[in-house]
Amino acid sequence: MLVVQKYGGTSVGSTERIKAVAERVVSTVRQGNNVVVVVSAMSGETDKLIGFAQRVSSNPADREMDLLLSSGERITTALTSMAIADLGVKSVALTGRQAGIITNAVFTKAKIERINTDKVNKALGEGKAVVIAGFQGVTEDDEITTLGRGGSDLSAVAVAAALKADLCEIYTDVDGVYTTDPNIVAEARKLEKISYEEMLELASLGAKVLQTRSVEFAMKYDVPVVVRSSFNNNPGTLVTREDQDMEKVVVSGVAYDKNQAKITVLQVPDKPGIAAGIFNSIAEANVVVDVIVQNVSVDGRSADISFTVPKTDSRKALEITQKLADDMGAKGVVVRDDLAKISIVGVGMRTHSGVAARMFETLSKHGINIMAISTSEIKVSCLIEAKYTELAVRVLHDQFGLEKQQ
Amino acid sequence: MLVVQKYGGTSVGSTERIKAVAERVVSTVRQGNNVVVVVSAMSGETDKLIGFAQRVSSNPADREMDLLLSSGERITTALTSMAIADLGVKSVALTGRQAGIITNAVFTKAKIERINTDKVNKALGEGKAVVIAGFQGVTEDDEITTLGRGGSDLSAVAVAAALKADLCEIYTDVDGVYTTDPNIVAEARKLEKISYEEMLELASLGAKVLQTRSVEFAMKYDVPVVVRSSFNNNPGTLVTREDQDMEKVVVSGVAYDKNQAKITVLQVPDKPGIAAGIFNSIAEANVVVDVIVQNVSVDGRSADISFTVPKTDSRKALEITQKLADDMGAKGVVVRDDLAKISIVGVGMRTHSGVAARMFETLSKHGINIMAISTSEIKVSCLIEAKYTELAVRVLHDQFGLEKQQ
Fold first, then answer.
1. Which residues of A touch B25 (CB under 8 A)?
2. pLDDT by residue for chain A (406 residues), tens digit each?
3. How far apart (Å, rounded) are the C-alpha atoms in residues A226 and B351?
4. In angstroms, rounded to a whole number, what is the distance separating the alpha carbons of residues B178 and B234?
5. Is B59 an 8 Å CB contact of chain A?
6. What is the DSSP letter of A265?
């Protein structure tokens, strides 16, 4: 079997941890597998380097930032390869460039364009464990790029796809994907299996186990991904194609996101193109709008438009909206940033009706007011007051029976 | 003027130091110069990385060691470029590979084979200060190499030669090259100017201001090198071609080396090829032999052969010699490692006679016994008991009037 194993920052956070990783790699090799290892920088290293950059420059160039940050992964790549070789398994360390990871030239958040696997395949053919620096690539013009936060997950999945690997294991410091945050619900249960679609909804909703782009990539190329801990031998959670078993379960997980601000434009004149104008301007400022609600007001000639943005962007969004509201003759703009978004996710919703209603009813029964709703095929999200977050997560987890074995 | 400036580890040892370096670069640019900067890793960084490697592996592969160690320079390169840009001068950071530094494939001590200056020249043409990672290069096969300890000096001189730069400034934490160690002789004086040949003798004799290979390179390509401090604005020492002025001075400096062990093979039978056998075997073990003395013993049929090796290699050299001595029927092998080598260096010796005699006389007058002598055109070295090192340096410095302005 050809296995790609990715180890995150805490998994390679010290030389002791790197030796533990090497032991796991060697044991996988000794079980008869070919292994490609993708590593992150030691935990804390990237933040240290960012701190350095901020101290020498008020506005570091993205290109030089990438050269700086790509160093961290090179260090762990070399050390991991040395540690594997020390245990008697031949190994070679490759930078992103040497591993053939070609990206576009958007520094600090480059996209992988293709992977030239020649060097990796050659090394695998020679019986070597191949260790690759995650998070980084190189442009056609030989410039060094990085893939953005969490980019090592993407490196691993992309390499697995390019090599047509049988499995991509993402090693981290948690045991897998849970039905919800175990810090809020003690009965939260680790999922054995979850579909790509569900994982995407959970990840983008704030369950930060696996980078969103890497899940999209895995889905596109049908790479089976296992999320598991490098600190124990528990089996982890398999992220894979949707199957019949999954559809029997109505809800797979409850997610929450406290980083929500709601902006409401009051009494917007009811003319065509007004809403488009607002959202275009906000998109141009690189602010991602999430939930959108429009209520026609009593007089029928104007409407209130509400939308949510990440709390960190609320100021920027407010400034833009305020200006537009003045121009279009709206009555005013109101912001609330004491809100949270609660979501239930599950592919079973496609075949089970009444799920949304059960959610609304449950929240209402516990006196939690719903301020906006958004739904997709496999997700229902409600905007509520942030102070009810933990309560809402707990009652929904209980209502949909998530603590029980599937 | 095109200036190459190299900054060593202490000069870029913190973000504050990097900002100070950036200010110096910017001021050089504002004086109307084109500037190429070569930087080392932050002081302590390389040792930290070596420590990591030793903790994960009992015998780290050279190839992976180079990947590991080359990271340190990349960090300072990116940071220095950012700091320069922050002061309003356009700047670009280049890795050894991006700067076109092509080496052979001898990992950990690669030799520069050629430099492709296209990218550097293009950036200079665009008015940018170019920052290059020292100590590293890349093979034709795209493997990352390092140039050995002190290799950043060599990077700087080689880049200066390739660009036909007008000057190569080596910034360090001392003011320049001194007539001797100021810790031993308070009157030691900074030299304004010194020839490449003298610098080579001083460097290889233990005055560790400038890496030996970089001086050889500067001499070969006639690159004027200035050694100066990045912590003040003192003018430093110019290392350049020998000129008439220099020849007026008999002795330029007094060097010492306490890392000396003397191995003596007693009563070696007087047959052809015996000495060659010993020195070949030692050379094969990568031990550098320095002074060699052979005394024919009283009976005329055997000789004592003595030679010195670095103290750190004395054990290895002894094992080899012992075995050979047994095979050839010599009487035995004796080692002394309480010795030091004192040397006087000066191009003036070429035109002044009696310099060696004055040295021997001075040592003898102070009761210092000479155990072996070796000479070159511009150098006389004596092996003495290590306990007399400081005394010998002081009396020779005084005897040749080195404290006086040239």
1. none
2. 999 999 999 999 999 999 999 999 999 999 999 999 999 999 999 999 999 999 999 999 999 999 999 999 999 999 999 999 999 999 999 999 999 999 999 999 999 999 999 999 999 999 999 999 999 999 999 999 999 888 999 999 999 999 999 999 999 988 999 999 989 999 999 999 999 999 998 876 656 788 888 999 999 999 999 999 999 999 999 999 998 888 788 899 999 998 889 999 988 887 777 778 888 888 888 888 888 887 776 667 788 888 999 888 899 899 999 998 888 888 889 999 899 999 999 998 988 888 999 999 999 999 999 988 888 889 999 999 999 999 999 999 999 999 886 5
3. 78
4. 14
5. yes
6. E
Choose among A78, A85, A142: nearest Cβ to B67.
A78
**Selection from A224, A166, A202, A248 nearest residue A342 by Cα:** A202
What residues of chain B, 313 to 352, have a C-beta less than 8 Å from chain A? none
Classify residue B140 by burial, with Cβ atoms within 10 Å: 0-12, 13-18, 19+.
exposed
Q: What is the DSSP string of B237-295?
A: EEEE---HHHHH-S--EEEEEEEEEEEEEEEEE--TTHHHHHHHHHHHTTPPP--EEEE
Determine the longest span between alpha carbons in chain A, in angstroms: 79
CB spacing of A78 vs B53 below 8 angstroms: yes
Domains and CATH numbers, chain B: 2-173 (3.40.1160.10), 254-399 (3.30.2130.10)
Give the dihedral of Cα atoms B209, B213, B217, B222; nearest 10 deg. Answer: 30
> Does the predicted model carry a pTM greater than 0.80?
yes
CB B366 within 8 A of CB B341: no
Which two tokens mark B366?
Answer: 């102070």
Nearest Cα residue to A142 out of B48, B100, B91 = B100
Q: Where are the beta strands (DSSP E) in A270-397?
A: 292-296, 302-310, 332-345, 372-376, 379-385
Kindly state whether B55 is in contact with chain A, defined as any CB-CB distance less than 8 angstroms: yes
Chain B residues near residue A52 by CB distance under 8 angstroms? 15, 75, 79
The answer to whether A56 contacts B83, with C-beta atoms less than 8 Å apart, is yes
